[in-house]
Amino acid sequence: MFSATLLGQVLVNGLSLSAIYVLVALGFTLLFGIMRVVNFSHGAFAMLGGYALFLLYGKWHLPYLLAVPLAALVVAALAMVLEYLVFRWFYQKMMQSMIGLLGLNMALVYSAVLLWDVYERSIPPAITTLLSVGGVLLPADRLTVVAIALVALGAFWFFMTRTRFGLAMRAASQDVETAEAQGMDTAALYRMAFFIAIFLTALAGGLYAQTYSLSPFMGDRPLIVAFVVVILGGMGSIPGAALGGVLLGFSESFLSTFYGSAVSSFASFGIVILLLIFRPWGLLGTKEAMRA
Amino acid sequence: MTNPMVLKSHAAHAPARGTRAGWLAAGIAAALVVLVWPLVWSNDFALTLGILIAINLIGAVSLHLIVRTGHVSLAHAGFMGLGGYATALSLTRLHLVFPFDLLAGAAVPALVALVIGPLLLRLAGKYFVLVTFMVGEVIRLTFIQWSSLTGGANGLFGVTVPLPGLDSLLHFYYFALAFCVLCVGLVVRILTSELGRAIDSIREAQRVSECSGVPAIRMKVVMFVIASGLVGVAGGLQVYFLKYIDPSAFTIVQSLNFLIMNVIGGMDHLAGAVIGTVFIVVLPQALEQYVNIQQILFGLILVAVMVGMPGGLMDAVKRLRALSRRRSGEPQ
């Protein structure tokens, strides 16, 4: 049961799942942490990222390493229109944002049905070779996913911790009013955070669609994952989203390989419910956030 | 929320004599319309719509009971499913006769709520939303996985109508309406009683109301249990109506629908839930002639309502009324 090849594959699957989950959850937690928006249209943006990659790479055959970031960039740029029309009305309004963005999700998903019909498509894999590491065969495309995600996460980490904009964003997520009082232009900050969040999500959506399959309804799963990961790590906590994503990715890969996907779902939901009851601010969230 | 707002919303719950007469007249008129229209103009489509409104109204109004305590539950469709499966199973497996199978449908979700309520309701608002979301998913997964009992993803067939004669849509409409009136009546009775004022005070200021001797957690649990029992009845009625049950009807989408019904109408008033239900059930049908963009339009309307009328339709009405009152120079 626990052969080296199998374990190696579980490990690589876990790594690539974790990478995608962390990307999805980071966008979600960024929007919640700074703007207090519960983005129920998160999955729709992941789905759009999938279609963008399908068009750029699958149809127009751009080089893979160019198509992946470009697809996410296109989605994020187009999403800025939605930021102006929809999102900015919901900043700092949790309840309205939930309902309104649910409506937006519906509109986006069914627009996709109208544009690209409901059938599942697949994005061709970039590499099909198997790497042999010490006698263990590993699929190279999964490792590519991990590498791309790591680059994106590294850039994100650098931006958040080493630049003035990142500092401003962290300040705003702690206390918007004080940040404004220090002279920060929160409207611009919100736009920037929104752009980054959608970029990460669309990137994750493209990789997800390539690993599994592409359809207008593929966003449901990333949305639930974002929810679970963000709760696991703590709402609005960025390191929490990273930890939560890794935990969920690995446990899902492990449990679904050895015990089936039903056990895996029950276990992850059960653990999250228990965690919420006894430590509702998440693994890395702070207790102060309870008051918000 | 500032203090004057609180006072104003309380004033709205204890209206002056004049407006009370107005409510009474509106209620009688509404009752007449609801009772008589199928006799005057009856077609299958309208009757089906009426039945769906009655069933969904029970769900929305029971969720309103939880919302009034200051919590939002996303497990409501899950509890509806528990009620539906309990009704279907007690009918097909235990061969219970009519009122008892529906009673089982109310009892099972209420019992589950009684067990998990005291644990969950200690949580602050936003964590309660998240944990109920998870609970709803676990309930749905259980329906799918426990296939020896629930028939898995295919669901259960072979449910029969509870009473002879209910095969006719017209009769079923009145049957559902009766339960709807009973459930809504119960909720109205709770909300207008001392209990209702207690839960309003818990929502506005939990610590203060605790200091005034309101057992906040216990009160919330009682409301949660009642609401879950009522939505179980809605689940049972739905099983009777569709004659089968499967897990796809009890996803997060349905829970969110109940929430949307409450928010679209306005969260602070029961009438909001009623308006919202009619809106949400009828609107997709009204958009049916644009069938391929129906869902898109529905989504966009939701966005527009939330952007333009954050307090819901009831709030918009209230604001309009305040505006006209100010015009005519009456004191507010």
Number of domains of chain A: 1
Helix content of chain A: over 70%
Please give the most extensive interface between any two protein chains, plus how many residues each contributes: A-B, 41 and 36 residues
Percent range of helical residues of chain B:
over 70%
Structural class given helices, strands, pairing of chain B?
mainly alpha
Domain module tally of chain B: 1
Count of distinct strands of chain B: 0
Could you state the oligomeric state of the chains shown? heterodimer
Q: Within the CATH hierarchy, at the fold level, what is the topology of chain A?
A: ABC transporter involved in vitamin B12 uptake, BtuC
Tally of individual helices of chain B: 15
Secondary-structure topology with pairs:
The complex is a heterodimer of chains A (292) and B (332).
Chain A: H1 4-35, H2 42-59, H3 64-85, H4 94-116, E1 130-133, E2 136-139, H5 140-162, H6 164-174, H7 176-181, H8 186-211, H9 220-233, H10 238-259, H11 261-278
Antiparallel strand pairs in A: 1-2
Chain B: H1 3-13, H2 17-40, H3 44-68, H4 76-92, H5 98-120, H6 125-145, H7 147-150, H8 169-192, H9 194-204, H10 206-211, H11 216-242, H12 252-265, H13 270-286, H14 294-308, H15 312-327
Description:
The complex is a heterodimer of chains A (about 290) and B (about 325). With about 290 residues, chain A is mostly helical. Chain A has one domain (about 5-290): ABC transporter involved in vitamin B12 uptake, BtuC (Orthogonal Bundle), CATH 1.10.3470. Helix content of chain A is about 75%, strand content about 5%. Chain A contains 11 helices and 2 strands; from the N terminus they run H-H-H-H-E-E-H-H-H-H-H-H-H. Chain A has helices spanning about 5-35, 40-60, 65-85, 95-115, 140-160, 165-175, 175-180, 185-210, 220-235, 240-260, 260-280, and strands at about 130-135, 135-140. The longest helix of chain A is centred in the N-terminal third of the chain and has 32 residues, at about 5-35. Chain A is globular, with a radius of gyration of 19 Å. The N and C termini of chain A lie far apart (about 45 Å). The model of chain A has no long low-confidence stretch (mean pLDDT about 85). Chain B has about 325 residues and is mostly helical. Chain B has one domain (about 5-10, about 25-250). Helix content of chain B is about 75%, strand content about 0%. Chain B contains 15 helices and no strands. Chain B has helices at about 5-15, 15-40, 45-70, 75-90, 100-120, 125-145, 145-150, 170-190, 195-205, 205-210, 215-240, 250-265, 270-285, 295-310, 310-325. The model of chain B is unreliable at about 1-15 (pLDDT under 50). At the A-B interface, helix 4, helix 9 and helix 11 of A face helix 6, helix 12 and helix 14 of B.
